[in-house]
Each structure stands twice: as structure tokens, then as C-alpha cells.
Protein 1
Amino acid sequence: MRYSPLIDQLIESLRCLPGVGPRSAQRMAFHLLQRERDGGRRLAGAIRDAVDQVGQCRQCRVLTEEPVCGLCSSDKRDRGLLCIVEGPADVFALEQATGYRGLYFVLMGRLSPLDGVGPEALGLDLLEERLAGGEVQEVILATSPTVEGEATSHYIAELAHEHGVRTTRIAHGVPMGGELEYVDSGTLSHAFAGRRDYD
Amino acid sequence: MRYSPLIDQLIESLRCLPGVGPRSAQRMAFHLLQRERDGGRRLAGAIRDAVDQVGQCRQCRVLTEEPVCGLCSSDKRDRGLLCIVEGPADVFALEQATGYRGLYFVLMGRLSPLDGVGPEALGLDLLEERLAGGEVQEVILATSPTVEGEATSHYIAELAHEHGVRTTRIAHGVPMGGELEYVDSGTLSHAFAGRRDYD
Ligand SMILES: [Zn+2]
Ligand SMILES: [Zn+2]
């Protein structure tokens, strides 16, 4: 059995959202139609506006509808520090958690030659121009601790080295408050190998 | 920290969907913008079309953009049987699970005087007209086994009685394949009190 064509189409379309299977799509569709028509109209407009108008910041590649994002155009940030992250959510997480006052460069992915994601797709030509410009004093690598994230960081570290820019990497290890027995073995072996003098 | 206005508005609007909190709204927004712009456009259109055009079937009150839904206008259904359910998803569940060939009447809620949901809001005037029409031979009550669902069924049974229409109620009890120890106590006590001769 099918619902009416417009309801079927709504349920089907909701499935493009991550984590939404057939049952939750159905629940969402009926919720919108039974209780949230105004919210639904607002949502439709917000999706349309964002999808049509949001592009990437010319300087850091973060998602924004402005030519240059709020962080890059701020005069309160230290332009000598450039933190490299994989996605816009990472910028948000770092801004929430740290007192970092430098700028970001958002790769929007990580190097993955098998999937056809090379240096250009990550804007590394733009990054290189920036490093050549001489303003950046330190590149802080904050890509994910995965094989592809590490390869991406390695590639960027080489670029920075060519331009004589200092490179640092955020620390990885046992999470604060984490109990050893619940930490995955990769993290644990990395933390063990990276042990420091205790003082 | 905020994202750009259009991204903030998208994240906020996604929260009108049931079960979507701040983190999943954020994940959905970035997913749409980074990987699903076409899906997002289709979703926006599907929401707008459904919210603007879907109303209720004139006969059974189910959600549909047609004046009369596919089930009510079918000539293959037994018009003497009328199953009363609370919502459109119940129609779907019964169609999937049973071989029922009669029609439905969808309350779109249940009696709840405290929330201002009275008989008119559930279309019970429409139901009464239908019972008075003489075509319906049996009303099958399939409201939820909750206090409000039971009260609603009780009210409808009275209506049916006044019009001399036979009324049945779908069985409630221990689910098939359910182990007793995992069944909630309300269901268990109901099942125990409703025990039948074994033959
Ligand atoms: Zn920027
Ligand atoms: Zn109908």
C-alpha cells in the first residue's frame, strides 16, 4: 500500500537526510502534516535559501553565503595562526572548546586518491598561495586521526615546510577522563608510543 | 559562535522535525550543503507541495491531496466494514499486516477534553452521519489501548449502538512471540483478566 503521491514523495525526499530511514521519514512526514505545517513551510524556505545561496568563504573555504566569512573578516583574530580542519563542524567544535584566536582553513574533505579527491579538491592550491604570502607563522594540523587524515596532514606539512612555515599537530591520546580499558586499541597504542617525560 | 545566518536558520528550522536535536540538525544541515544540494531542493519542494496541498479525505479523514482517498474510492473494498483508527500510520500498519478489505475512519487524534479535543475535532459528527446512512454493518474499534484511546472507543461504541450497528474491538494482550517476562505489566494484567476458555 502507498499513501497519496504527495505524501509518498515527501517520505521519499526526507530520506536524503542522514540517519533517516523509512520509518522515521514516515513519522516526520505525518508530524509535519498533522502538527507543523508552518514549521514545514519555514523549513522548505530555509533549505531552499541555504542550498541556493550558501557557498564557500574565498579565504578559508568554510560554508557561508558571504564572499568572506565572519572569522576571516574579523579584525580580532591572529592572522599568523592557521588551523587546518576537515569540515565546518570542526571549526565550530574548536571555537566552542578552545580559546584559539587564529584563523582556519577548511579542507571540506581529506585526501583520498581512490575516491578521486586530490589536492585541488581540498583547495590546497589556495592554501599554498596563502603560505607563500608570508603572513602565516604557524600551521596547526587538526585533521582527523585516520589514515586519510594523517596523509592529508603529511601533505600539508610538506607544503608548509617548503615555505618555511612552522607546523604543529594537535595532540592525540587517551581522552581526558577516559578509562584506559574503554579506549580503543589504536588510540591506546598511539598514546603509549607518544609518552612524554613526567615532570 | 554562530555559523552564517542562512546556515543558522537551516539548523534551527530542521529542529521542527520530530527527534531532531541541535547536533543532528547541524549534521543534517552540513550533509545537505556538502553532499545533497539536489536532494535538498527536492525535499524543499516536496515539503512545500505536501504542506500546501494535502488535506483530508472527505469520507475517512485520512491525509490525502485528493477530495476522496484511494481506499474510499476503490470498488474492491467491503463498504459494510468500518475500522476506526487514530492516525494515518495506523491505516498503513493494518493494510500491511492484515487482509482487511473494509474501509477506515481516521480520527486524527483521540478524545482529550483537557486538551480541548472533543468529538467534533475527531469528525465524530461525520462518523455519526455515516452510521445513520445504514451502509455500515460493523464498526471495528482499533484505537490505541491507552486511557484516551479507550474513552474514544467507548464514545464511538455508544454512537454505533444508537444506530444499531454491531461493534467489535481488536484484541489486546501478550504480543505473539513475546516472552511474558518482557511484557509490560499493564498488558499482562489485561491479558490475564481477558483469558478465554482453551479449546
Ligand atoms: Zn573564512
Ligand atoms: Zn478516505
Protein 2
Amino acid sequence: MDYIGKSNLRVDAYAKVTGNAKYSADLAPRDAYIAKVLHSTIANGEVVSMDVSEAKKVPGVIGVFTCFDVPDVEFPTAGHPWSVEESHQDIADRKLLNKRVRLYGDDIAAVVAEDNVACDRALKLIKVEYKEYPVHTDARSMLNDKDAPVLHPNWRKDNIIAHTAFNSSEYFNYDEVKKNAITKYGEENLIEVVKNVKTPRISHSHIELPVSYAYVDANGKVTVVASTQIPHIGRRVIAQALNIPWGKVRVIKPYIGGGFGNKQDMLYEPLNAWLSVKCGGHPVLLEISREETIVCTRTRHPMDGDLRALATKDGRLLCRELINYSTNGGYAAHGHSITAKCAGIFKNLYRDELGVRSEAYTVWTNAPTSAAMRAYGVPQAVSFAETLTDDICVKGGFDPYKFRMDNICDENTSAGGAMFYTYGLKKCMEIGAEKIGWTKKREEYKNQTGPIRRGIGMCCFIYQTAVAPIALETSTVRMILNQDGSMQLSIGATEIGQGADTAFTQICAESTGISPDKVFIMSSQDTDVTPFDTGAYGSRQTYVTGNSIKECGILFKKKICEYALTMEEEKSLAGKKIDDLDVFENYVVDKNTKEKLVSLEKLSTTAFYSFKHNQHITAEKTTDITTNTFASGCTFVDVEVDMPLGIINIKDIISVHDSGTLINPALATAQVHGGMSMSLGYGMSEELILDPKTGKPYNDNLLEYKIPTAMDSPDFKVEFVVMKDPTGGYGNKALGEPPTVAPAVAIRNAVLNATGIGFNEFPLTAQRLVHEFKEKGMI
Amino acid sequence: MDYIGKSNLRVDAYAKVTGNAKYSADLAPRDAYIAKVLHSTIANGEVVSMDVSEAKKVPGVIGVFTCFDVPDVEFPTAGHPWSVEESHQDIADRKLLNKRVRLYGDDIAAVVAEDNVACDRALKLIKVEYKEYPVHTDARSMLNDKDAPVLHPNWRKDNIIAHTAFNSSEYFNYDEVKKNAITKYGEENLIEVVKNVKTPRISHSHIELPVSYAYVDANGKVTVVASTQIPHIGRRVIAQALNIPWGKVRVIKPYIGGGFGNKQDMLYEPLNAWLSVKCGGHPVLLEISREETIVCTRTRHPMDGDLRALATKDGRLLCRELINYSTNGGYAAHGHSITAKCAGIFKNLYRDELGVRSEAYTVWTNAPTSAAMRAYGVPQAVSFAETLTDDICVKGGFDPYKFRMDNICDENTSAGGAMFYTYGLKKCMEIGAEKIGWTKKREEYKNQTGPIRRGIGMCCFIYQTAVAPIALETSTVRMILNQDGSMQLSIGATEIGQGADTAFTQICAESTGISPDKVFIMSSQDTDVTPFDTGAYGSRQTYVTGNSIKECGILFKKKICEYALTMEEEKSLAGKKIDDLDVFENYVVDKNTKEKLVSLEKLSTTAFYSFKHNQHITAEKTTDITTNTFASGCTFVDVEVDMPLGIINIKDIISVHDSGTLINPALATAQVHGGMSMSLGYGMSEELILDPKTGKPYNDNLLEYKIPTAMDSPDFKVEFVVMKDPTGGYGNKALGEPPTVAPAVAIRNAVLNATGIGFNEFPLTAQRLVHEFKEKGMI
């Protein structure tokens, strides 16, 4: 390949370093009004009345809008493609502002003013009278209270969004299987682990906060310029929320400073749109603060899983069971799909000889709304599965590496339409073990005593690429030949900081023969202009959109070659047929000899300006994808645990990924670095804590909610097992989300190796470590 | 037709009335630097040296750039499509800033500062040393001075841009033909008129001044947001001026407050682009003042024509001759094409029995640069031809209406690839004569005496539609189906205030079957995104782009119908074939019965989201036009001349147009109103006057340069002769420019009728009238 597999500089590198790349807030018109949201100070109840008279008197206030003013329409917020079948549509369970308050910080009113100061003053003057109900901030507590108020009576009377079970077979029953196993192997030859694992409520912590501005454009369209991963889906959601035709909404996405799934939901964009409409279409800017982001946007699901597993003493995994209670907060957002994905990955990660059960509840609670976050339930799945594995190994005295080699899913794994078209997991494990010095260190770290101990741990994962065939995977790409032989690449997929535009540019160059410096990707999406694509999520873009770029590029190249054949004045082309031609390094060339026949510069100028045969060469193509290939990988980590201080020092860490062809190795490595860093937070420091009685957050800011900084980061090592996947456009498969799955659990398993203590509640904070070591009398 | 021929409200009516429509200056980033240009205070010479040291010291000044700093590249500015043949390319005769000064107000330096005040202060501190040359502000004076300094020695040594002659036959010679005619008819049976006619230097006087801002975008593209009629051509010109690849330039055109041809040239956009590059790509705003606009942008060509004509005493026009000296100012801009068009129309307007000669010089002078202005040389052509006709009629005692009926061009006229595919001129004359009461009033106004006299006059014209086959006519259109069955219409043609977007919307509705309220036209062009089209000029857009919209619409509709056939779940479509289907009023219908089969709303939602057959329906099509059809028409006017005051009061005025089908009759009428108003200025008040010795303007502002206001405007009456032209997309032909051709000359001829004085210098100002009446002893 000519342009793929090269570590090109990011196409937006200079623009981002110089500040030339414009973000939503940079672009807001100077006369935009400022909007702010009033949030509820109770977590469950009703707004009985609201007095806005004093707020309206504040000079500069344009309008005060309350939950009593909004359209009586409930809408869904999830960034999923629409389904024409009602049963597959997302849950519509919220209004623009909610009279029925379901979480602390629910949106109950908004002020629009000429400036920030007037806006803040007015917000403080709104008087609210509530009726309060009892609060439940986690799934189990909600389910245990039979008298708990029903949060969404239109949908369910029991606050359960969904309850599903993935079993290995219809008749699988853990207790029966266990009974039979005892009969067959004898109880003395079996090991069972029974435990509970809890995962944290995590804030995405993207640098750019959710921000948008809305106005009614000259065409009368309600236009929202927003930091969103999903402009085309957002268009539909906003239209639903405002109850207007979908074509009357326009969403524009400038550069974005990270999303990590939080911006795969419509957050405040629908409200922003409505506020502008209420203000006569004047631009209204709505910037969400970090505090609001942490509590009022979305979080990773805290999950609480009851686990059981049975293995033979000679190291064969017989069966496993997970009963998972997933806390979904006040609104459904992505509904059950994240918990379901968690259940699926838990089930599929191992070959359980006698079967597996993965049962899952997603429950509405009075907590911040949980929804998509990078890796979409899989970090939790692996927290369940891979802590279980190490606990089995401890109990059975197995080497965790060998146990996994014997029991982990193999190349024949197939589930929900996904399969391994290429399988690199065991190769990843080999490389990781080799690089970290597994065998030597496992030996070395045996029988440690004293306050500071070393340990080594590992964790594996598998990951679906994109969301087909469960959900729609479709992408359209448009290509335009410029007058000088350079080209425009127009896509609906979104660069959100991950480097997608650079990967797309290289894919485009590969498929068109136009060198990357002459491929100008249009990074900003505008739903009125840009081809349709569902957006950035599910590690789908390089796979789905990438394939669409490839297909469109082939069509574009064909059109260029066809035009070349009309250039009768070019003697070099005389007698050539379409099958003789190719485009290579900005020339139409002879396909076999690579002889340069005519430059694209000359060809395009002629095509634009010829009297004889005038054509503005463009190509546009919709490609849908119905395949889904598993990516996989593992993390190995070597830690030093300072037991009296409760501190885990990472001495060495390596992630090895099976992601197919790397479009851009440097960017792929950076993607893994970012994911590993994010997983350190999940593993060791990040957790949004709520007062269980009031639902009020204790740490809704970045002083008290701790994300890893550069100072906390070890030297991240990354390796790849490169195999060309037959379903990826150029052999590539998922890499966006997978890097954030395994490191946290590898660390937990390394701490287990170091101290003998298997922590079952993430993150492994100093407090939890010290508490546990004290309990066990170790310090 | 369902949607064409209806007087729909302008699609931008609300946006423009409410201020929602954004113009270039509205959109400039708040941190943009301000640029201003230093203009020469001499009209011919060289900048010897420039001292910018004091200017650079002004706080807030970012940079001072002089004619010694700019790239050593001469570039063409005309808004013509590029030609791949060098001989057809425009004259490249200026730099971004000019050391060699050719007109008073030439651009010699520019200041970029943080604000207006710093910019103005710095401009004043630049010290310039000149070497001065003698000045010639008109073509004849330039040609008469054999020692005149050569302005563009790279191009011509004689200051003549071009000299051409259109003769009726190769051997036509006026003097010989006259000699032969005398022999044949006898001198006593012939009338000859010999005279000179001068037309004024006119300023376009668009409300929105030339304004642009430039920056380097995140893709590294030099981006110019500009009030221009020709974004795609501008892209090429800017690239040439900066000597960079054409694809590295991006031009964006927001709403525009009028252009009238002035914005069919690249004015300050290339300089603006370069200044931004010099300032590290930071946004730089360059707003041109009214004074600069009048002197330093473009004007209508002042022409100075020597005329002769021979007719028989029984009213047969035998032959005519025009030798026209056209003053082109300091730079070539559109070169000879405007004077050539003038020559062509002069030649073709009448059937000269024995032939015609139309000779033309276009001459570089030390005057403001003349270039395109609404009707592109034709007002001058008609000033020559139609004053000549009335002078013949006076001399021969002919009724000007009857003389024209007998001698004017007929339906067989064909010239330069243009012909009358439909011919309505004589019908227009009939209607105009009838409406104004020609016969009765001609009789009534005979033998007037006293200081206040009435007169009636008329003037005819013909006008080519678009510029083919002489120049390239090409247009691409893109259509996008939205998720709710509404659509986007994307074009490269430009709405510049004339109502093009509304006409395009109706044409689109007609061709697609999607009602105009669901057709969203994208009014702003962006050369990175928008399909290629050469822009707004030559009365071409409704004809060329309109045809392209029609063709694209047919393709789009076909794609919609093809999709419908894949919707197996729609029983109404069972058994249908593609030829059975049509789209009508937002439904796929049975072509014959108009039975509604499926709504576009349902079809589009299905197309976007179906798992079975997923397609984002778009269509894109390039259409080139090689035909050219003459439009035609006439103006009749009834005036009262107050001789002592020199005032012409228009008592009645009517223009009658043969423009094919009217896409939107109300807008067509408004277009004619505007053109008539503009012609009043040409006829009675507008003239930019220069000091012939220094080239310095006397009236470079709207206090002293007089455009007609609403107070000066009579009730404009408009009639149309509607014939469906076979070459227009829906039978339409030129209407943008023609309305501004005839009224001025009709007024002149009415004054002749009232007073017996045939004025031969436009405009007919009070000073000229009073002077002449005094000379003749009439007052």
C-alpha cells in the first residue's frame, strides 16, 4: 500500500497547535445571547410551582423559561440511528425541561440574557417549590424498595429499563450445571469463586465542555452549532424534541475537544435550539460548566455484578454466571444497550465448557444519567470476567497466563453477528508476556513480605468493530476534484480529536491515487451539506466510513480515468481503454507499467474549462456494512504496592492490540496511550460519589474528581499484532475504544499478585487499599 | 406548469427583512485585523520610494506592506471562466500593489492593524515619493498623444487593449456604399446623419460596498469570505495573484447587497488574501469605502462614438457606421469584451440594407478601471444606435415607431452564435406604443412652444442570453434528499440580491415535484463544497443554471422513483415500473392517474434507515449550454421638459420585455423596475467626472454623484410578451440586465420630440439641457 501504514502527521496538527482550528465557542456570533440552565436541588420529586417574576426584572434578561413552558413532548437522546420499527426506537422519556424531577441537577428552567452576569443573577432569583420523593441512587437499592416511586410510568411500572439474559443455551442453569459437575468430577476436584464486583460512576472528562449555539438561519432552519459526535443523528433528535420536521433542523459540527461518548447523546442542544426559537431565532449560546457536565450530562454506568464461576483443579473453566445490576440514572438515554453489550462480552470472552449465564438489569434511578462512554460497557464486562479469572487462578494455584491460554475464546467465537475474521488474541498475550517478563517476574514476586511489594497482572478483552448487524451501519462519502487536481473529501463522520480525519485522508489517498497533501478533508460537518453518516461511536468510523471512502474513491478514480479517455489531444492516451488506466501519485497512469499519461492537474483544468467535454468530476457513494469483526488484545502490568500509603506505582505497563492493519501507526499508538491513561483513572482514582440519601454529588469538579495527569502516567508501551482483516476497507478493525478496557483490571490483578488481596470495587483508591490492608492486618 | 409562473414570495424575504441574512461584514470574526489601502495621489507615474517607518510605529499596527513587497506576479481580474487556450485568457496587467501607478487612486500600499483608528493613523504617516507622467483620462486623448507614456509595455506599445471591426461583410466600406447609394437613389432621395455620441462613466452604486475578510483555514487554505458575484472564478484569480495552486484557495460568498457587475471582477480579494498570509493566516477584514469604490474599483465604460447613417427618404435604413473609442482606465479587467459586445449589438439591432460597420477601440487610460456593469456595453450600443435612429427620423420626418417597425432586426437575426429562438420585439413595440398612447401623443405634442414642453420617445434593444458560444457556459447542481422528504438544493450560481434563489427554488420544484416550501436552497457558496458554476453575470443564471437545475431534478426524481420500486412493503407500488412513476406534490405518484403511491417523507426515512436497502439519495449533474437566444424589448416614455430649469419630468414610462417564460412574474417585474431606475441615472444624473489634467475625481461620493432615489422615480410600468423559448430550461431567457438598457435613450428621444434638441451626451443633466437651450436661443 502506498499511503496506508505510514505515520503521517495529523492533518489538523498545525491548525490545532496554532489555534487555527475553530471550536463551537470560537464561532459564536458576537451578539449571541447567553443561556444558562437552572438545575433541581432535589433528586426525586415534582416542581410544584416556580416564581420567575424577580428573575425577569433583571436588566439584560431576555426571557425566563420553565418546565411549565416547554412543549409537551418526550424525546429520546441516544445517538443511535433512527429505526423505522417502533420497537427498535430509543426510549423517549424526557422533556426539554422537566417538571418531574428524577435526579439532583435535573433541568427545570433556563434563563436567556444579554450577558453572563445578568444570566447568573436571574438564575439565583428564581424561586422553586418542590414536592419531594425518596431517593435511590443505585440499581439494587431502587429494586429493593418495592414502594419506590415510579420514575417513568409511561414506560415501566418497576423502574427497570430492561432485563435480559444471555445464556449459552436455552436450558443453562448454573446451579444444575454445578450439581452435575460435582457428580461428574467430585467436589474435591472443583474450584468455585463466588463474589460481587462493583464498577465506578465515571465522568468522561473531555477537555471541551458541551457547548452549542443555536439560531434560526436564513432558510428558516433551526440551526445548532454544537460540539457533538453525532450531527446527523442530532438533527433528528432536535426535530423530535421541538416537534418540527427533521429537515427544518440543521446541525453544524466544528472541531471538537473530545467526546468519549458523552457527546454521543443529545445533551443541551435541543434545549438550546428551543431557546433560540423562543427568542425569535436570535443566536443563543449555551455553555455547560464542568460541574454541570459531571452531574447533568452523562456518566459511565456503575455496575454491580454478582459472579460465580466453576473450574476444575486441572485448570478447565467449566461455567460462569453474572447477574448484573446496572445503574442508569434518571433518564434512559442509550437504554439497555450498554448493559447488554457488557453482558455479551462477559459471555463471549471465555469458552466455558459447560456454559455461561449473563443476566442484566438496567434500572432507572435518581442518579446522573448513564450512557455511552468509551468502550460502552466492555470495561465493566472485563472487570467482571477478568477479576473472576484471576480469583480462580489464585484459588486453583494456576498461572493466569496459562489459564487464559487454555480457556479464553478462540478463533471460532461468534456472537450477535460478530466473529473473528482475523484472530490475534493469543499472539497478543504471547507478546505481552514476553515483553513484561511474565514468567521470570511471577517467579520473582513469589513469597514477598514487608510493606512494599511487587506484583504482575494481566487482562484480556475482545471488542466488536462497529455496531452491525444489530444496528444500522451506513455511511456516504462525497469527493470533488478541484481545478488543480487536488480534491475535497466530504464525509458525515466526525473528527472529535481522535485523528479520524488523518486516517480518512490516508484511506482516500490510497483509494484514489491522489497524494495526501492534495486531499483536503472537510472536518466540519453540516447536516445541510455533508453526506449522511451516523457519527463517531462504536469504534466504527475507520471501519465503516473508511470502507465507504474506499468504495467512493474507486468510483471517483473510474470517473477520472473515463474523463482521461475523452482527452483526444493527449497522445499518450491514444488507444488506451478504461481497464488500462489507474491513478497513481496524481497522474493517470498505465495500470501495468505505471507510465505517467496525464497529470491530474492538467486533466482537472481541462475538465472544468473544456468546451468540448465539460465535466465537474465528483463522486458520491453510500456504503452499508453488515459484517462485524472482533478486535482483541491484552494489557500486562508490573506494579509496586506501597501498602501503608495505599499507593500503586506502575513500574511497567504494556498493551498489545490485535486491530488489523494500522492506517497510521503513530496515531494508533497515540490512541492506545489515551485509552490506557483513561483506564488508569477507572482503575485507581476516578469515581463520582453521590450522597445516597439526597443524590447530591460530593465531587462534581476536577479538584475532587481525580483524573490522571501527565504526572501520574507511566511510560505507556504499545505493541500491535497486525493481521489484515478481510472485512475492513484496508484490513483494519476497531481501535478507538479497546485501549481503555484492560489496563485497570490488569492493575487490579497485579495488586492481587503483589498482596494476595483481590479488590472487587473499582477504582483501587488509596483509601480502599489502606482500609483493606488494615482489615486483613497486613499494615 | 405547477410551480413556475407563480409570484412566490422571495425565499429570502423574511431573512432580509429581519436582518437574519448575514453579509460578509456580519460574519467577520471579532478578532479580525483591519486592513486599509493607501491610494496614489497621482494618476500616472511611478512610486520612487516609500517611507513607512513612522507608520509602523503606530501602536496597534501589525504590518505595513508596500508595492515593493508584493509578489512579482501580474494577474487578471476579470470574472470570466478560465480558458485552457492562452489566447483566450484575460489580460494579466496588475500586481497586488502597483509601483507603476496608472490611475489616481491606484493601490500602492496597505496597512494591517488591530483597529480602524490605528490603521487610519498609520496610513497618514506613510511618505511617498513619485515620479509623475502626463495624464490622459479618455481614450481619444490618449490615442491622440503619440508621446503618451505606455501603461502596459508588456502587452501593447500603443495603449490599445484591442481594436476590432464587425462589418456586415468583409468588403463593407461606408464611403463606398454611400457613393453607390447616391448613384442608385440620387443624393436628394437620401438622408445622412453624422454625429458623435458620448456615454458616461458610471458607478455601480450597489448598497453593500466591496468587503471581504481573509484567513488561512485549518486545512491551510487561503480563505476569502467576500461579497462577490463569482466565487469559483475568484478562487482561480486569487490563486494566480498569490502564485499558489488553485485548490489551495477557498472563497465563500454569503448574502450580497448588489453587485451589478462591479463584483464580477476580483477587486480587493486577492490583496486581502495576501495580507492575511503575511499576517500568519490571521483573519484580516478589508472594507472598501464608498469613495474608494467609486474611484478604485470599476466603472461602466465611457464611450465616445463617431456615427454615420444613411437612409432613404421613404424610410429605409441603408447603412450605418460606428467608430467607438472606449475608455478602459488603468487596467484591462474585462479587456475588450465589453466594447466588442457594444459593437455587436450596435451592428445587429437593425437590418441595414446595404451593410454596417462597427469598429471599436478599447484603450488603457489614466482613469478608473472600466469593466462589467449591468448590460455590459449594451446601454452604450443602444445610446449610439437608438439616438441615431431618432435623428434619422427627425431629419426624414419619419415616425420613429414606424421606422423601427420597418427596419429593426427581425426574427431571422443571427450573430455570434446567438439567434431569436423566439422573437417578441415587434410585439413589445406594439404593446408599448398602445399603452403609452403613441399615435395620439405624437400628434398632440407637435408644434409646442413655451418653456415647458411634452415629448414622447422610445428605444429598442436586443440582448444575448448568457455568453455561449463565445465563452464557456457550464453549471453543476447538486440535490440532497433530507430525512423528511424535503430537499437541499446546492448550486454554484450566486444570489446577489436579484432574486435568483427564488427562481431556482421554483425551477427545482417544477423539475422534482417537491413543493417549494420543502426545497431549501443553500444561498451561500463555498468553493470547497458548492458545485462549480461561473457565477452571476451575463443574464445567464436562470438560463444556464436553471437548465442545470432542471436536468439535475430529472435525475433526482428518477433516483427517488427507483428507490420507491425497492420498497416491497408498499403495496401501492406493487407491479409498477419506473416509467409508471412520477413525483408530484411530495408524493411518488402514478404518472398517468396522479394517484399517490408513497409520500416522500416515508420514502426518505426508509431510504436513510432501512437495513434492506440503504441509500442517501442525492443527484449531481453538470450541464453545459451552447445555445444563445436573444431577448429583446423596448421602453416608451412621455416626458415634460421644463426648459428654463433644465428638468425632465417623467409623466409616464413603460418597458415591455420579451424574456420568454417568467419564472416568477412579481420578481421579473421588480427586476425591470430596478433596471429602469438604474437607466434613469444613466440618462439623467449619473456621471463620474475627472479632472482631465490630474485624473482626480470631482464627485467620488453619493452627495455629488447623483443616483436616482425613490423620490426621483416615476411609477414604472412593465409589460411582458411571454413566449416559451425552446432553449431555456422552462422557456425562459435573459431578464437580469436588459431592463437597464432602453429607458435612458427613450428619455433622450422624448426630449428630442419635446424640444427638437437631440442630446448626444449622457446624462441629460439640467446643466447640459440649460446650456443647450441657451445656445439655441430657446430660453
